[in-house]
Design a protein that fits this description.
The chain is an all-alpha fold and 126 residues long. The protein is built from 4 helices and no strands. It is found in: Membrane.
């Protein structure tokens, strides 16, 4: 599935760029808590970039294709909202409406992992 490969490569590339940016440009600007949150966003983005790349090279059935979309949207919502919350907090105008977006993104990631588990277990029991 080419979308998984594209998203995985893009997420991986951006996580390296954003991680380096956070480690160098934001270190003296963000609070310690903001840096920890920012780093969490970068880590989760990279983890899911790797998973998307792996899924992109496997034959995908309907469940795996659905998993790819949950991982893409979950990563965008989870990591993206963390980045924006940290940045807008640093600028002094924290976008608090993004607060619920982070757990929603996390929920999408959890559903993606549950779908992978389901996909692994079905052949055993069918």
């Amino acid at each position: 599935m080419i979308i998984a490969q594209i998203a995985g490569a893009l997420f991986g590339l951006l996580s390296v760029v954003l991680g380096a940016f956070g480690a160098h440009a934001l270190k003296g600007k963000f609070t310690e808590q903001q840096l920890v949150s920012y780093e969490t966003g970068v880590k989760y983005q990279m983890y899911h970039a790797i998973v998307l790349l792996i899924l992109g090279y496997l034959p995908l059935g309907q469940v795996k294709a659905l998993t790819v979309w949950f991982f893409i949207f979950g990563t965008l919502l989870f990591s993206g909202s963390i980045y924006l919350l940290c940045y807008t907090g640093y600028k002094g105008n924290k976008w608090k409406f993004l607060g619920p977006v982070t757990p929603l993104g996390g929920l999408l990631l959890v559903v993606g992992w549950a779908l992978l588990l389901y996909n692994a277990l079905v052949p055993i029991f069918v």
